[in-house]
Each structure stands twice: as C-alpha cells, then as structure tokens.
C-alpha cells in the first residue's frame, strides 16, 4: 500500500495559495514477466481514443467496400421484445445521423443489450437486446431506430479513406461491458482497478494503478499528452506527480509544432475537446456531439503526422472507448478472459472482469502498414482465448519498445499487433497527404448553454479536485451539477492552468518529483467573489 506523507508549503502572493504536497511512497513489488523484443521500425506511437460508438455503427457498412471486413449488410435485426417471437423487428439501417440524446451504456443496460435479458450465461451471447433496451429508455421506437443504425461510408469519409489505405481491426472489443471511464482506464493501465461505472468521486481523487506512462518513464522513454479542455488522463493519480508536469502540452499550441519539428515523443496521447461550444465544437464523437467534428479532428491529426519528418517511424491507433449503446452483431467474448488484478467490482453485480465489452472500431495508420489491411482476431496468440481489446495497446507498446513487465494479467493476455508493421522492408511512399473533407451532419450549432453531461461533470469534478475547490463545496456530487457546457469549459480550463502553474512553482521550490500538488483556495479567495465560479 502507498504511504502518504503530507508536507505543507506556503507561497505569499496577491492571491495567496496554500499548497499541500502529498508524497506518495510507492512500494513496487510487482512480479516481472519479460516481453520479447521484436524488430521494429516504429519510434512513435500515437493514441487517440474517441467516444461511444460500436463497430457496426461506425464502420459496419464498409463491408460493401471490402467484403473481407466483418460488417453488416442489413440482414441484421433485433426484436423490440426479446421474449415475444412475434415482436416487431428493427433491421440494421444505413442512415445514421446526428444522435441526441445518448443511448444507454451502463453495466445493466449493456448486459440487456448483449444477452437480451439479465441472465448473462449465454455463450455466445445473442446480441439481441439493443432495440429492447433502447426502447425502455423512453418507450418510443426512435431510440431503437437510432441504435440499429450505421453510417453510410460517404458520411464518414475520413474513416472510409483510412480503412482503405491502412488497417482496420474488425475484432477489437471494449475491455469491460461498462461505460466510458472503466474502458478509458484500460487503455493506458490494462485495468479499471475494479471500476464498472463512472464513479465521479473516485475519478476525481484519481485511480492508483501503475500505467504505461510509469513504465515508459522508468525505462527512460519519452511520452506526451496533448490535451484540449482538460487532460482526462489525470484520472490516473500517478500522472498528477510533479515528475510528469512537462509531459502535458496544450494541443493547439504544441501538437503541430512538435510534429513539424520532429519532436514528438515515443508515446503520444492526443485528447479531444470534450466540451461543445459554438466557437470550439466538441470533437470526441460522444453523442450528441457531431461526428463531423470528430472526423475533422482525425483528419487534422493524420495530416499533421503525415507532414512530419517523423512520419516514417509513426504508428497512429484510433479506437473507441465503448460502443455507446449502439448495436453490434459480433458476440462479445465471454470465455477465458482473465481478471486483470483479481479486484471484484462493486455490488450488486460483483463483476469479476471475466468477459469483454461490445466490439468497437479500431483503425491503425502507418506507412509500414499494407494498403487495405483487415486484422481479424489475434489468432490464438499469446493464449488460445486472447482477443484484441484496449489492453492490446500497452501490450503492443511493450513489445515495440522492449519494456520489461506487463501491467496486469490482462495486457499479458491481450493480443498484440506489432505484426502489421513488420511485413515491409521499407515504408510506403503512396500514403495520401490529405484526407477528404467530411460532410457536416448536425444542423445548427453547439448547445453551449445546455447543462453538462455526466461525462463532462466528471471532468469538472476532476478540475475541482486539482484546483482545490472540493475543500469548500459539497464535493463530490454537487460540483458542476448545474453548470452549463460553456461555464464548465471555462471552469476546467482555468483549473488546469492553475494546477500546472502551481506545479511549476513547486518544482522551482525544489519539491520532490514524486509529489502531487494539492491546491487550496485561500480564505480571502473563498470569502471574496468566488474565483471558482466562471464568468
Ligand atoms: C448478409 O450477411 C449474412 C451474414 O453473413 C448472410 O447470411 C446473408 O446471406 C447476407 N445477405 C445478403 C442479402 O447479402
Ligand atoms: C433486469 O433487472 C432489473 C432489476 O435489477 C429489472 O428492473 C429489469 O426489468 C430486468 N430486465 C429484464 C430484461 O429482465
Ligand atoms: C415505459 O413503460 C413501462 C411499462 O409501461 C414503465 O414501467 C416504464 O417506467 C416506462 N419507461 C419510461 C422511461 O417511460
Ligand atoms: C520516408 O521514407 C520514404 C521511403 O524510404 C522516403 O522516400 C521519404 O522521403 C521518407 N519520408 C520522410 C519524411 O523521411
Ligand atoms: C456481492 O458481494 C457481496 C459482498 O461480498 C455479497 O453480500 C452479495 O451477496 C454479492 N452479490 C451477488 C449477486 O453475488
Ligand atoms: C447552482 O446551484 C446553486 C445552489 O443550488 C445556486 O446557488 C447557484 O446559483 C447555481 N448556479 C447556476 C449557474 O445555476
């Protein structure tokens, strides 16, 4: 268990702060397993995790363009009522549009989508409860139609091009049959540390597990997080340590510049704008945000990397945290999936992390990848039941960079995909420099005066913790609950700025690199017009 020692330090300035610097002494005693080194042309891996879409919803219709892809042809259907054999059926369509509101993707909603009931013993699962579960959210067919629907490839032209030019994975699953945050946690740490839902208070305190960032740092390999409103990677507590302060870069100022100068580090995480405002629309693909913005963002990231002197050593991986309630026809794996760390999820489900979530879109891009590659499963490697899921990212990074140990039992089990960049003797020279411009899907502008979503509220609560506002409010449930999107955006951007400022100051004071800065707004700050409230 980590020991926590608290040191206090004060700084007097116009607005005085009190920094509480908590020292985490971690006793590392993980069993080490070695990963074989491989010959590797890749020196930079870039990871982009989009939000809440299933494979069939985003890419299923691309089967028309390449029959090798395990997608859809419209024969797929779900009944309105699983128990009623004469029930109306919803067939999978090709006219997905702007989706608002957001379909269900809690643990219990997903169980019903996958198994058609609360009984999760079917093997393989029938994948027949999506329409029924969607219907139950409002007792109208509208949501059922939305979830039984995929994009016409011409409405997601950026992906259409990437899929035909590079590699698409048609058997990559969410790591947990649960919502966003547990799955996002798997991407960089191969566990959710027991989380099966988005628990705002735990997220705001930060999850304690080791991450791929820690492994890279220990091996002397560079990484960088290019964030927009707030880095969601701060949900990992370790990343708040002072030693990682300079790993965070504002995307707008730094991503293109570092790429142009050939200075991107070995492991790069690009985070989206999670807050949807008129001037800066969200681009994370989270319903109801416009997929057009997400496509524009992927296009920008690709074109930036393509123009970089580092292009010939780069691998870009784009995936989706979870399926967001949208139908997928491929049964989720329920056999031979290891718990990462033995932690059992909370009541009432007591989930043992022994099955995966719904299939999600994953695309890999590199000049070392053959045009039109379709990657199915990992074909029984490293174990007969291994699959691609989010832990495949750290597992593959470990192979590419020759890191010594796995994070958990899950990345040890997950399939790795370094093979897709090892078939050629030299990089391709025919990769497009530009991607097509997508069509705008949403009519009208961002609803910046809307109340924040659950996910956005989690980010606001994270902001409250790093800024120290949780001390004075009825944290955690209330912070941000009545902010608008626009207010939330200002609040979190301000919090991030101040947290990093405080970090720079603490570093100047010579505070140890292992510390995490905890800020407290001063009493005067508290009593005057609360600086924490946005204009
Ligand atoms: C659609 O795909 C299914 C499953 O692969 C197949 O059985 C069916 O014949 C196909 N239907 C059409 C119209 O191609
Ligand atoms: C599943 O269980 C919940 C209670 O946990 C119940 O409300 C719901 O109706 C059940 N769903 C089905 C499809 O049986
Ligand atoms: C839908 O109808 C059922 C049965 O009439 C009812 O129990 C349920 O509360 C309704 N759900 C919503 C979201 O209106
Ligand atoms: C990438 O490699 C190709 C083939 O060797 C070469 O033609 C091209 O100039 C290289 N590009 C960069 C940015 O180094
Ligand atoms: C879940 O675990 C708790 C505590 O161990 C136990 O009381 C409860 O009965 C378990 N629930 C189920 C459904 O197994
Ligand atoms: C939020 O709620 C609190 C108390 O419920 C209220 O005092 C405050 O004015 C509200 N703020 C906004 C922006 O609605």
From TrEMBL:
Example of a GO MF term: phosphatidylcholine phospholipase C activity
Transmembrane residue ranges: none
Protein EC: 3.1.4.3
Annotated coiled-coil segments of the chain: none
UniProt entry keywords in alphabetical sequence: Hydrolase, Signal
Signal peptide: 1-37
Superkingdom as given in the UniProt entry: Eukaryota
Protein name: Phosphatidylglycerol/phosphatidylinositol transfer protein
Organism, scientific name: Stylosanthes scabra
């Amino acid at each position: 268990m980590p020991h926590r020692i608290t040191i206090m330090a004060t700084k007097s300035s116009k607005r005085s702060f009190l920094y509480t610097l908590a020292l985490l002494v971690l006793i590392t005693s993980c069993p080490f397993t070695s990963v074989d080194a491989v010959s590797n042309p890749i020196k930079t891996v870039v990871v982009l995790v989009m939000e809440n879409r299933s494979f069939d919803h985003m890419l299923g219709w691309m089967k028309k363009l390449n029959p090798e892809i395990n997608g859809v042809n419209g024969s797929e259907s779900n009944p309105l009522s699983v128990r009623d054999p004469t029930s109306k059926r919803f067939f999978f369509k090709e006219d997905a549009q702007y989706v608002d509101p957001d379909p269900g993707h809690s643990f219990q909603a997903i169980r019903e989508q996958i198994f058609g009931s609360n009984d999760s013993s079917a093997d393989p699962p029938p994948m027949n409860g999506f329409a029924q579960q969607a219907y139950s959210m409002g007792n109208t067919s509208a949501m059922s139609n939305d979830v039984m629907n995929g994009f016409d490839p011409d409405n997601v032209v950026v992906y259409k091009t990437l899929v035909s030019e590079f590699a698409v994975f048609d058997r990559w699953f969410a790591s947990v049959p649960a919502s966003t945050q547990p799955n996002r946690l798997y991407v960089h740490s191969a566990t959710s540390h027991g989380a099966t839902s988005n628990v705002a208070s735990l997220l705001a305190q930060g999850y304690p597990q080791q991450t791929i960032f820690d492994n890279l740092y220990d091996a002397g390999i560079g990484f960088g997080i290019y964030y927009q409103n707030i880095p969601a990677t701060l949900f990992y507590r370790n990343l708040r340590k002072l030693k990682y302060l300079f790993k965070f870069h504002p995307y707008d100022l730094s991503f293109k510049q570092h790429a142009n100068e050939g200075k991107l580090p070995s492991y790069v995480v690009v985070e989206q704008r999670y807050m949807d405002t008129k001037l800066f629309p969200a681009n994370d693909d989270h319903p109801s945000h416009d997929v057009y913005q997400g496509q524009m963002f992927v296009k920008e990231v690709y074109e930036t990397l393509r123009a970089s002197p580092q292009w010939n050593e780069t691998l870009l991986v784009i995936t989706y945290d979870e399926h967001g309630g949208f139908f997928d026809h491929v049964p989720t794996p329920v056999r031979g999936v290891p718990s990462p760390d033995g932690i059992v999820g909370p009541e009432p489900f007591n989930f043992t992390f022994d099955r995966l979530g719904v299939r999600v879109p994953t695309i890999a891009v590199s000049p070392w990848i053959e045009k039109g590659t379709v990657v199915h499963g990992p074909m029984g490697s490293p174990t007969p039941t291994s699959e691609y899921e989010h832990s495949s990212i750290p597992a593959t990074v470990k192979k590419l960079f020759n890191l010594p140990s796995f994070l958990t039992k899950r990345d040890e089990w997950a399939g790795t995909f370094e093979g897709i960049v090892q078939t050629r003797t030299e990089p391709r020279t025919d990769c497009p420099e530009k991607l097509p411009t997508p069509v705008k899907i949403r009519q009208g502008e961002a609803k910046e005066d809307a109340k924040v979503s659950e996910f956005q509220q989690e980010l606001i609560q994270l902001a409250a913790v790093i800024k120290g506002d949780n001390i004075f409010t009825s944290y955690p449930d209330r912070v941000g609950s009545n902010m608008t999107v626009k207010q939330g955006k200002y609040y979190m951007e301000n919090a991030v700025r101040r947290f990093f400022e405080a970090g720079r100051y603490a570093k100047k004071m010579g505070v140890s690199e292992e510390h995490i800065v905890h800020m407290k707004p001063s009493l005067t700050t508290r009593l005057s017009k609360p600086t924490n409230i946005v204009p």
